[in-house]
Design goal:
Layout lengths: L1 H8 L2 H4 L12 H19 L2 E2 L1 H14 L7 H18 L4 H22 L3 H31 L3 E2 L1 H12 L3 H5 L2 H6 L1 H6 L6 H15 L10 E6 L6 H13 L5 E5 L9 H5 L13 H8 L3 E6 L6 H13 L1 E3 L5 E3 L3 E6 L2 H6 L16 H15 L2 H4 L4 E4 L5 H18 L6 E4 L1 H11 L6 H22 L5 E9 L2 E8 H10 L1
Parallel strand pairs: 1-2, 3-8, 3-9, 4-5, 5-8, 10-11
Antiparallel strand pairs: 6-7, 11-12
């Protein structure tokens, strides 16, 4: 239709010479029948055999994951490319033939060297050996080709999934894995990365499950969430964990800082500049990124800072799951998870204990804090905006045991980075308690602990490694003595002696 409007409809004299016939795309069942009709031609062309499961998978996966094109076109292309992929893989020389070919090349090089050195006897001997190997190679190759002609390589459903994965960027294992199993395990997987927010994670998981089993509008996004609460307690980390678990990679996270969209004219940056303005052909920052990566998590940081006109665009996305950019293209948001964050809770916490804070750890009344945060949200955002959100998720401030777990998670990352040095770091409980007591600040959340670990662990280790002081060390323990942290290196031989002494 776009091409018809662009090249024919605008020319009245040309347009009246045609009778438009609107052809709707076929259903999934009709497309499967179409592919069965094309099956024989593709099998003859690629010299492969398509399994029934591969044909059905080509239609189902292309319908679900390739949103910019229509059936049967996209399913036919997937089937064609899967056949080509299997053919290329099957027609690579088997290891035995490859090894024989390499040996022939090696003998040929030695023969040329012998001839250059005028050692004709050796050259003749190598020539005879080469001819024998070539005869063997050709015989085995002919037999291999004959076997291929009789037993055509099969195109299976995993080959089709591989093609769709290459096109969409969604890892193959995610296409194979049962969606039901994945949805049932959301809480378990997120809790490995997001510490101390079980209630928030349960609310997110419930909303996503409701959406995926079809209890919501078909075209709406998978989930629309507003994350509230203090800073540094896991709101952004939740978005990253969701992107990795549901879409296979943290690269599926598309992030926007809404402090950049405080002015009225910045709306055009999201959907694209109008015709005639600079940047018209570049498309919008939001629409273009979703168009290229339709399976993603959209993170809008500090949503309360956005201009009211930006919220009007969001209303359409939340309701219909689509948005038309400045170039007239409709972008599908039905396969995205939309997460907005706000630090309204942090501002309330900063004003003292009226929402539940009286000391470094321990919330007197989380429900009261939640109530006050939600009241401020209602005063800040319009009802029509809030009514379109699936879940308002209020994050808890961190308790001491949560901070300890976060330190342990950060230590795992440090040890992973130190693997190439062959060193492992352990933190003594005295150091952990000292670090929390001296460095943890509730108003900054886990970020204050991350900075403290960089200063007291990573910086010290970097200096010691560069000086060569830890060259013979396998394990380092960090302790505290007289209110000062220190490194206790354990040399390899000392560690071995300690094991034997036990």
């Amino acid at each position: 239709l776009d091409e018809y409007r662009k090249y024919i409809e605008k020319d009245g004299a040309l347009e009246r010479r045609f009778q438009p016939v609107i052809v709707e795309q076929p259903t999934v069942e009709d497309t499967i029948r179409i592919l069965y009709g094309l099956k024989k031609k593709f099998e003859e062309f690629h010299n492969v055999e398509y399994t029934p499961e591969a044909i059905e998978k080509a239609v189902i996966l292309s319908e679900r994951y390739i949103t910019e094109r229509n059936l049967p076109d996209k399913a036919i292309d997937v089937l064609d490319e899967a056949g080509s992929l299997v053919k290329l893989r099957a027609y690579q020389l088997p290891p035995e033939l490859k090894e024989l070919e390499d040996k022939i090349k090696e003998i040929e090089e030695k023969k040329e060297e012998a001839a250059a050195e005028q050692d004709y006897e050796k050259a003749a001997r190598l020539r005879d050996e080469e001819l024998k190997l070539r005869a063997k190679f050709e015989g085995l190759k002919a037999k291999w080709k004959q076997e291929l002609a009789v037993n055509r390589p099969k195109v299976r459903e995993e080959d089709v999934a591989d093609v769709v994965s290459r096109w969409t960027g969604i890892p193959v294992k995610r296409l194979h894995e049962s969606d039901m199993e994945k949805l049932l395990n959301i809480e378990v997987e997120l809790q490995k990365r997001v510490i101390g927010q079980d209630e928030a994670i349960r609310a997110i998981a419930r909303a996503i499950r409701r959406s995926r089993v079809g209890l919501k509008g078909k075209h709406r996004p998978i989930g629309v969430f507003l994350f509230l609460g203090p800073t540094g307690v896991g709101k952004t980390e939740t978005a990253k964990a969701l992107a990795e678990y549901l879409f296979g990679s943290e690269d599926a996270l598309i992030r926007f800082d809404m402090s950049e969209y405080m002015e009225k004219h910045t709306v055009s940056r999201l959907v694209g500049a109008p015709p005639g303005y600079v940047g018209y052909e570049e498309g919008g920052q939001l629409t273009e990124r979703v168009r290229r990566k339709p399976y993603s998590v959209l993170l809008f940081d500090e949503i309360e800072k956005a201009h009211p006109d930006v919220f009007n665009i969001f209303l359409q996305i939340f309701d219909d799951g689509r948005l038309t950019d400045a170039m007239g293209r409709t972008v599908d948001f039905s396969n995205t998870i939309i997460i907005m964050t706000s630090n309204l809770g942090a501002r309330l916490i900063a004003h003292g204990s009226q929402i539940g804070f009286e000391k470094k750890f321990g919330v007197v009344d989380y429900e009261q804090m939640k109530k006050n945060v939600l009241e401020q949200v209602k005063r800040t955002f319009n009802p029509e905006f809030l009514n379109r959100i699936d879940e308002l998720v209020v994050y808890r401030p961190l308790e001491k045991e949560h901070v300890v777990k976060i330190i342990e998670l950060q230590l795992e990352h440090v040890n992973k980075s130190l693997q190439e040095w062959g060193i492992k770091v352990k933190l003594h409980r005295s150091f952990i308690d000292w670090l929390i007591d001296k460095e943890y600040k509730p108003e900054y959340g886990a970020r204050s602990i991350k900075r403290a670990l960089q200063h007291h662990v990573e910086d010290v280790l970097a200096e010691e490694l560069l000086r060569g002081a830890l060259r013979d060390v396998e394990e380092v323990e960090i302790k505290v003595k007289n209110e000062k942290p220190y490194l206790k290196p354990i040399k390899k031989k000392e560690k071995l002696e300690a094991i034997f002494n036990q």
